[in-house]
Structure formats: C-alpha cells, structure tokens
Write a structure and sequence with these properties.
With 220 residues, the protein is an alpha/beta fold. It is 29% helix and 16% strand. Helix 1 packs parallel to helix 2 and helix 3 crosses helix 4. The model has no long low-confidence stretch (mean pLDDT 96).
Length: 220
Amino acid sequence: MPRTIAIGDIHGCSKALATVLAAIQPTREDTIITLGDVIDRGPESRETVDQLLALAKATNLVPLLGNHEEMLLAAGRGGLGQELDFWIHCGGEATLASYGGSLDEIPPDHIQFFARCHAYYETQSHFFVHASYLPEIPLDRQPPYQLRWASLYESQPGAHISGKKAVVGHTALRDGEILDLGHLAMIDTYCHGGGNLTALEVVTGQIWQADKTGKLRTRS
C-alpha cells in the first residue's frame, strides 16, 4: 500500500538521512515529503541534496521550501551583499564549505532543486508546511513568513479550517522527540544539534529516527 512519509529538518545530516531511507525502503508508489531546511548547520549539505536528487528518481519526492533554502536562493540573487551575510550568519557557512566555499560552486541541478521546492503540500487528510500556518486562512493564501519563518516555541496554531492535520518542521524539539497535538505534529527533532532526524508515516504513525552519525534509533 502506498505510504505518505514526512521527513523533518535534515540540516546537512546526510548520514542520518541515509540511515532513515535505508530503514524506510521507499517504493515508487510512496510519497516522501521533506519539510524544508535540508541544508545549513550540519556538515554535509551537498551530500544531502545529492541523496535527494537520487531519491526523486526512485519515489515521489515532494521537497518543501524552508527558510534556509529561501536564504540560499536570496543570497544567490543578491551576489555578495546583505543577503549572503545574513545566510552565512544563520548557518550557511557550513553549506558553502560543503560546496567548496563559494556560491559559484553549487551545481545548477542543486540550485534548480531549491528553486522547485513547494510552499506546502496536502493530501486528503493531512497538509505539510515548513514552519507554521494561520488556522483561518486557506493554504494557498498563507503568508510566506508564516509558512517558512514563524516559530512554535511559545504558541502553536489551532486546527486549520480545512480540517486536515498539519505536519511541520522548523521549530526544533531539542529532546529529539516529536510533539503530536492531535491537529498538529511537529517533527523537527534537532538532528544537527544532537537529537534525531525523524521520518513519520502520517497514516499509520510509524516513526523512523537516526542521529547525525547515522545510528538508527530502536523504538520500543
């Protein structure tokens, strides 16, 4: 049976991604949604994107645009100006290092991957965004800030008017555990900072996790 699997913020942790994908064993019938922030902070952004480009040939991959991909694209458009400085300050230095130290070293197919990322994705029962949402606003009218930058540390949105369950990343859960509020599942479990990378099959609730060294977590 086809599965719908969301993967939280990877942040350049390619070993964790490889381990999680090996455990999942995606098929061509599955849909895998990466919730954004596949790059920055961790050391292996280039390798992570290479894995995702290969994955897109083997399954239905739906990459969402995170604020870190948005910063990279803005830096590329802005040359050596303020956008580049802001991105580097927010973790872009690790990404540049993985590409040889320069924006010019990022391969065109990687730039195209970032540029094709989706603002959101939805199924009959769930919707997926990088950061957050306004409960009373349809998904196609959500403000970009809300979708990619809004933090859920202090407050979480209520149920969306669509009646669908939200699956989000962006707000790092530093204990390495997902937070499921019923109408909202938060699955950025802080892989680059010592937690786990989380993949969630949204219908069955099956979870796969690995740390940044590539160690698979065995769940009881």
